[in-house]
Amino acid sequence: MKIAILTSSESWFVPYAHKLAKEILADVYYNHNDIPNSYDIVFILSYFKLVPSNFLKKHKYNLVVHESDLPQGKGWAPLFWQILEGKNEITITLFEAVEKADAGDIYLQDKIILNGYELHDEIRKIQAKKTIELCKRFLAEKPQPRPQKGKSSYYPKRTPLDSKLDINKSIKEQFNLLRIVDNEHYPAFFEIDGHRYVLKIYGNTNTGG
Asked: Fewer Cβ in 10 A, N or C end of the chain?
């Protein structure tokens, strides 16, 4: 069985893509235009472009993993948006890619379980682990697809401005926002009297008193 993994070169998922590729003997690509041949399965994971229908038709399965209970939560960064909503149990879905974003038939679903205190990097590790599990489950189980049912909802793309803190709110009130900010690429910040200040958050790993 010929398997490919398609991810974006600037994605956080790149090291996990190579880990998965080693485990399932897959080829890794960073642009769908670079995939020269037909594959039995293409896992499209944290890929930032929409792929055209002529690409999808070349392969038997084109599979995407999305962190929401589709058709609810289509769009961008669904895991982080739901953490902001206060959720600690979040559905993760493996589905067939179609030309319309996040609209294909569903093959598998599972749950991402958080304790409410994980920060960005730990959340990403949990997300990656569940993503890899779903991909390997598909290979082992070959589940039958089912259509999405219900009303769709959509999340917008997050930007650096979404990391802005409100100086009139407490840290506790904004802790979920602090959990999901990326210290290097889109750190938390606040503004006061026309001045901007950046905050970075780290967990305390010390176990001693």
From this structure: C
pLDDT in tens, 126-150: 999 999 999 999 999 999 999 999 9
The answer to whether residues 89 and 130 touch, using CB atoms and an 8 Å cutoff, is no
Q: Name the residue type at position 100.
A: K
- Residue 146 sits at φ, ψ, to 5 deg, of -135, 145
- Extract the runs of DSSP E, i.e. beta strands, from 34-170: 41-44, 61-66, 74-75, 89-96, 106-113, 154-155
Closest CA to 102 of 17, 44, 162: 44
85-124 confidence digits (pLDDT tens):
999 999 999 999 999 989 999 999 999 999 999 999 999 9
Q: Is 37 exposed, middle or buried (0-12, 13-18, 19+ CB in 10 A)?
A: exposed
Give CA 86 to chain center in angstroms.
17
Question: Residue 119 burial by CB count (10 A; 0-12/13-18/19+): exposed, middle or buried?
Answer: middle
Q: What is the 8-class DSSP label of residue 205?
A: -
CB atoms within 10 A of CB 165: 18
Quote the pLDDT of residue 207: 39
Nearest-angstrom CA–CA distance, 91 and 103: 16
Q: If DSSP codes are grouped into helix, strand and coil, which group holds residue 189?
A: strand
